[in-house]
C-alpha cells in the first residue's frame, strides 16, 4: 500500500457534466482508481477566479459529485472533496505564492487564453495566481500524477517548478508531479467538428439528458455542409457525428464511414443510430444518478467522508511543511 502512487484530479464545479467530461476525463479517472490512490477535488475556489457569484456553487458541486458517483467513482477508494473545506489549501497557496514570480505567472499561456476567450478586461490577483492554488491542490496530497487535458499542462509545469523550489529551499517534502494526458481529450460539441464540447458554448449532451433530449440534440448536430441530400457523398473525417460513432459505436463505425462516403447512408439515419448508442452508454449512468438523486443524505455523507479523509492527508503534509520551514 505504501508504494501506491497518488493521483490528484480536479474539476471546477460547473454543475451537471456532459459527454466531453466523460470521454475527456471521467472514464480515465474510473480506470485509474484500480491502480492508484485517487483524490478528486471539487475546485470551488477556482470557480471564483472567473465568476465571483457564488450563489450556485454548492448546488453545482453536488450536481457534479452525483455525476462522478454515477460514472463509477468509488467513494470508498477515492475521496471526493471540496477545496474550500480543507483550509490547508489556502495556507499552502500563500506559502507557494512566495516561490514564483509575477512575471512567470503572466507568461502562463493557459491564463492568457482564458482571459482572451472570456473577454476579461482586467485580471484579478486571484485569477493570475490560480495555478499557484492548483499547485497547492496537487502537492498537499503529494500527487505523483495529474490527469489533465493539453490545456492544463502548463499548470502542472508550474506545480513542478514550485515543488522543486520548495524542496531546494526548505527540504525534500514534495514529489514533482507529472501530467497524465487523456487519449480522447477533445470531444467536439454539437455545433461543429472543430469546436470543443463545453457548457459555455451551449453545444453539449449532458450525462443527465433524457433519451428524448439526446435524439433531439443529435438531430440538430452540424454535419458535412457538402452533404445536403441523402445520397450526396459525405466526408466522415470532418463530421462530428462520425467522431461520436468512433467513440460510442466502434463496431458499426466502419460501415457508417463507407455508407457516408458512398451516399448510401443519410445524415438522419446516421444521427439516429449514433443517438441510440449514446443513450445506451448513458443508461447505466442515469440509473446510478437516479439512485443518488433520491438519496441526498447519502450524497452529503459521501462528501463529508471524503473531506475527512482529504483533510487528514492535507494536515499531515502541512505539518511537514511547517516543520521543514521552522514555522511554529
Ligand atoms: N484548473 C482546473 C480547471 O480549470 C481545475 C483544477 C483545480 C485542477 N485544481 C486542480 C485540475 C488540480 C487538476 C488538479 O479546470
Instruction: Provide the CATH topology of the largest domain.
Output: Rossmann fold
Strand order of the largest sheet: 1-2-3
The CATH homologous superfamily of the largest domain is called: HUPs
Backbone structural class: mainly alpha
Would you identify the CATH architecture of the largest domain? 3-Layer(aba) Sandwich
Number of domains: 2
Q: Identify the bound ligands.
A: tryptophan
Stretches with pLDDT under 50, minimum 5 residues = none
Query: What kind of sheet is the major sheet?
Result: 3 strands, parallel
Mean of the pLDDT scores?
Answer: 94
Q: Helical content, roughly?
A: 40-55%
Shape descriptor reads globular
SSE blueprint:
Blueprint: E1 6-11, H1 19-32, E2 37-42, H2 44-50, H3 57-71, E3 80-82, H4 88-96, H5 102-106, H6 109-117, H7 125-128, H8 130-140, E4 145-148, H9 153-170, E5 178-181, H10 211-219, H11 240-248, H12 253-262, H13 267-293, H14 296-325
Parallel strand pairs: 1-2, 2-3, 4-5
Helix pairs in contact: 3-13, 4-8, 4-14, 8-9, 10-13, 11-13
The structure holds tryptophan.
Residues 8-12, 41, 43, 46, 134, 137-138, 146, 148, 152 line the site of tryptophan.
Describe this structure in words.
- It is a single chain.
- The chain has 328 residues and is mainly alpha-helical.
- It is built from 14 helices and five strands.
- It has helices spanning 19-32, 44-50, 57-71, 88-96, 102-106, 109-117, 125-128, 130-140, 153-170, 211-219, 240-248, 253-262, 267-293, 296-325, and strands spanning 6-11, 37-42, 80-82, 145-148, 178-181.
- The strands form two sheets. The chain has a three-stranded parallel beta sheet with strand order 1-2-3. The protein has a two-stranded parallel ribbon with strand order 4-5.
- The radius of gyration is 22 Å and the shape is globular.
- The two termini are 31 Å apart.
- Residues 8-12, 41, 43, 46, 134, 137-138, 146, 148, 152 line the site of tryptophan.
Amino acid at each position: 500500500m505504501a508504494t501506491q502512487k497518488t493521483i490528484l484530479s480536479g474539476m471546477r464545479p460547473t454543475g451537471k457534466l456532459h459527454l466531453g467530461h466523460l470521454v475527456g476525463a471521467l472514464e480515465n479517472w474510473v480506470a485509474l482508481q484500480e491502480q492508484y490512490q485517487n483524490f478528486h477535488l471539487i475546485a470551488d475556489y477556482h470557480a471564483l477566479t472567473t465568476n465571483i457569484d457564488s450563489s450556485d456553487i454548492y448546488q453545482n458541486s453536488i450536481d457534479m459529485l452525483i455525476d462522478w458517483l454515477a460514472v463509477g467513482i468509488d467513494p470508498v477508494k477515492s475521496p471526493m472533496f471540496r477545496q474550500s473545506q480543507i483550509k490547508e489549501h489556502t495556507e499552502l497557496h500563500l506559502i507557494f505564492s512566495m516561490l514564483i514570480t509575477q512575471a512567470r505567472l503572466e507568461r502562463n499561456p493557459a491564463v492568457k487564453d482564458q482571459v482572451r476567450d472570456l473577454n476579461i478586461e482586467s485580471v484579478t490577483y486571484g485569477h493570475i495566481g490560480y495555478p499557484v492554488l492548483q499547485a497547492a491542490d496537487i502537492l498537499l496530497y503529494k500527487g505523483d500524477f495529474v490527469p489533465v487535458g493539453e490545456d492544463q499542462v502548463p499548470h502542472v509545469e508550474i506545480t513542478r517548478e514550485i515543488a522543486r523550489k520548495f524542496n531546494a529551499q526548505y527540504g525534500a517534502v514534495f514529489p514533482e508531479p507529472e501530467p497524465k494526458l487523456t487519449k480522447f481529450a477533445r470531444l467536439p460539441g454539437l455545433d461543429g467538428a472543430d469546436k470543443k464540447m463545453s457548457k459555455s458554448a451551449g453545444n453539449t449532451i449532458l450525462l443527465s439528458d433524457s433519451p428524448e433530449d439526446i435524439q433531439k440534440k443529435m438531430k440538430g448536430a452540424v454535419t458535412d455542409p457538402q452533404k445536403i441530400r441523402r445520397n450526396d457523398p459525405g466526408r466522415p473525417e470532418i463530421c462530428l457525428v462520425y467522431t461520436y460513432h468512433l467513440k460510442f459505436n466502434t463496431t458499426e463505425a466502419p460501415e457508417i464511414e463507407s455508407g457516408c462516403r458512398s451516399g448510401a447512408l443519410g445524415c438522419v439515419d446516421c444521427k439516429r443510430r449514433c443517438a441510440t448508442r449514446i443513450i445506451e452508454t448513458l443508461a447505466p449512468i442515469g440509473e446510478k444518478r437516479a439512485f443518488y438523486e433520491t438519496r441526498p443524505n447519502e450524497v452529503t455523507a459521501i462528501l463529508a467522508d471524503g473531506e475527512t479523509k482529504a483533510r487528514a492527508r492535507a494536515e499531515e503534509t502541512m505539518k511537514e511543511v511547517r516543520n521543514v520551514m521552522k514555522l511554529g
